[in-house]
Amino acid sequence: MKEETKTYKIVTFSCRGDRYETIKGETEGIRLFDWIHENAPVPVREVTRIASQILTNLLHRELSGSNIMRGYCNPFMFVIGGDGTVSLIDLSDQSNLALGRKIQTKAVMRCFYPPDTGEYGEETSELYGFARTIQFIMAANEKAGSSMSGKDTRRWQLFLDNCAGEGLRRIRDFEHAGKVLKRIGDCGATTQNDNAAGKPAKDERSSVRFLRLAICSAAVLFLVLSFKTGIDGMEQMREQYDMRYTQMFERIVQLETQVESLEERQKAESSHTR
């Protein structure tokens, strides 16, 4: 069943100098949750655009100091207008109070809110919800029979795991997430352009890969040789240290022997004098 377009109260953000201000308005559109179900499979380029606009809304909400549902991010909180713009629903407005209560139900919280481990703050909780929202789009795409390339899948999975705080390089702020997302979008655009052009530069790409492999191999060899040289140098230093320590120890023994002989001689002379 196709979801009807509705009028939603939304909040947008305006930058004046160093300050961001919250501006309340309204738009005709569909909630992101319903839009995903109706439009799956969503092209990768469109997923990137939606993800970027969600991050922008979250960042501007933080910079403006707005308290509207801070700490939360899920597909029920956003609306997509007729022009494709993703906007944050004003959940403080009376017309959206029921939606605000729905967002805080156990079912939604379990899917889009991080576990209560004490490791998540307000911003990292929103990043966790952002990651789960994009994963929700990916799951809808897969259910609709669409799949990304292996490279795109790995890029997105790594990025979303890091946003959710489950990867090796945890992403802790919106600006960092936006920069990583831009790189993912650039890589995806390059791949799509190559496919559209019939990949005419396949030999060139192979040459580049071979050159990179050669450079990496040379770098590894250099490191190994440097490491071996360092080990050999350390071994020589240790041998020199052992030799010097042995010489010092032998010298100390000689001195002690001389002192003992001198003391015995003094005792003998003293007793003879008596």
Produce a short descriptive summary.
The chain is 64% helix and 12% strand. The chain is of the alpha+beta class and 274 residues long. Residues 194-205 have low confidence and may be disordered.
Task: Describe this entry's structure for a reader.
With 274 residues, the chain is α+β, with helices and mostly antiparallel strands. It folds into 2 domains: 195 residues, Orthogonal Bundle (Transferase(Phosphotransferase), domain 1); 68 residues. Helix content is 64%, strand content 12%. The protein has 8 helices and 4 strands, in the order ββααββαααααα. The chain has a 4-stranded antiparallel β-barrel with strand order 1-2-3-4. The longest helix is centred in the C-terminal third of the chain and has 72 residues. The radius of gyration is 34 Å and the shape is elongated.
Order of helices and strands: EEHHEEHHHHHH
Report the sheet-strand fraction.
5-15%
Major sheet: size, sense and barrel closure? Answer: 4 strands, antiparallel, barrel
Average pLDDT for all residues: 78
Q: What overall geometry do the principal axes of the alpha carbons give?
A: elongated
Question: Any idea of the CATH topology of the largest domain?
Answer: Transferase(Phosphotransferase), domain 1
Alpha-carbon distance between the two ends:
126 Å
Integer tally of domains: 2
Arrangement of strands in the largest sheet: 1-2-3-4
CATH domain class of the largest domain? Mainly Alpha
CATH architecture of the largest domain: Orthogonal Bundle
CATH homologous superfamily designation of the largest domain: Transferase(Phosphotransferase) domain 1
Structural class determined from secondary elements:
alpha+beta
